[in-house]
Amino acid sequence: MEGKIDIKLPALRPVIQKILAIIDNPNASAYLVATEISQDPALTAKILGIVNSPFYGFPQRISSLSHAVVVLGMGVLKGILIAIHFSDEKYDPNIMPFILTLWQHQTDCSYAISEILSFYNKLLKDAKNSPAIITAALLHDIGKAIIAQNHPKRALSVYKANDLEAEKEVFSFTHEDVNLYLCEKWMLPDALKYPISFHHRPEEVPEIFWKETALIHLVDAIINEKKPKQEAIDILQISNKELEEIENRITNILSTKLTMKRP
Questions:
Q1: Rounded Cα–Cα distance for residues 245 and 145 (Å)
Q2: What is the set of domains in the chain, with CATH numbers?
Q3: Predicted pLDDT of residue 51
Q4: 195-210 pLDDT, tens per residue?
Q5: The three-state (H, E, C) secondary structure of the chain, written as one string
Q6: Cα atoms found within 13 Å of the Cα of residue 214, Cβ hemisphere only
Q7: CA 72 – CA 137 distance, rounded (Å)
Q8: CA-to-CA distance for 3 and 117, rounded, in angstroms?
Q9: Phi/psi of residue 2, each to 5°?
Q10: Using an 8 Å Cβ cutoff, are 191 and 19 in contact?
């Protein structure tokens, strides 16, 4: 991927780099990872805030980092750390309104998916890791933020139209390509990589990740007031009536919730 896209990923904060390196060690324990995170009180507070947010919907409050690491899993934790890094980034003031809108959209998608899964288990009855789906939704448009950092003027023009074809025409690559580059560079697990990098093409991922990717595509399309791809509807095996019900529920969910802060 490197060399094929005109993108430079920002350097991760040293503390996050160190934690990711520990996570990538196959001998790392939840205790060791939690101990390293605890050296940074602000990061600790953010992770505990996220894991106890409505996104994940765990039945009991999680008060210790070790518990948070265990219930999330190492791979999902990596995704959350990257989300935190990008939410803390210093952005060009000219693109800041776009970045704030982008984060709101991603949190809306995460929140809507978590709410849908709580009442409509059929959508992901075969899913193994719903925290991964929630985290993937929180990151699914991160490539747009990276493109905007690298090409602010052109990005604002392209994303105003919210057109994937225009994105490819202007840059010769899409935010999905950047997502894949990021996932591979920072070794995110497949449960995050495929839904993040193929949410506009769910039919192209390995079958084991079909439903997760199709669900993110579905919710993303509904929130953007676009028609979901038939392939995604077929993967999720939902009828027109069920689709209408999901659309109505998402509209109600987002109209009644308070505006949620980025990670």
A1: 32
A2: 14-256 (1.10.3210.10)
A3: 92
A4: 999 999 999 999 999 9
A5: CECCECCCCCCCCHHHHHHHHHHCCCCCCHHHHHHHHCCCHHHHHHHHHHHCCCCCCCCCCCCCHHHHHHHHCHHHHHHHHHHHHHHHCCCCCCCHHHHHHHHHHHHHHHHHHHHHHHHCHHHHCCCCCHHHHHHHHHHCCHHHHHHHHHCHHHHHHHHHHCCHHHHHHHHCCCHHHHHHHHHHHCCCCHHHHHHHHCCCCHHHCCHHHHHHHHHHHHHHHHHCCCCCCHHHHHHHCCCHHHHHHHHHHHHHHHHHCCCCCCC
A6: 23
A7: 15
A8: 39
A9: -65, 140
A10: no
Check residues 205 and 130 and name the one with the higher pLDDT. Answer: 205
Q: Which two tokens stand for residue 72?
A: 């999330």
User: Residue 1 — pLDDT band, cuts 50, 70, 90?
Assistant: very low
Q: Record the tokens describing residue 171, joined without a space.
A: 């840059």
Separation of alpha carbons 103 and 69, rounded Å: 24
How far apart CA 170 and CA 85 sit, in angstroms, is 27
CB 48 within 8 A of CB 71: no
Handedness of CA 200, 258, 68, 42 (dihedral sign): positive
What's the one-letter identity of residue 191? Answer: A
CA distance 68 to 47: 8
Q: Which residues of 173-206 are buried (b: 16+ CB within 10 A; e: fewer)?
A: bbbbbbbbbbbeebebbebbbbbbbbbbebbebe
Task: Report the 10 Å Cβ neighbour count for 82.
Answer: 23
| 176: its two tokens | 């999905």
Q: Report pLDDT digits (tens) over 66-84.
A: 999 999 999 999 999 999 9
- pTM of this prediction? 0.89
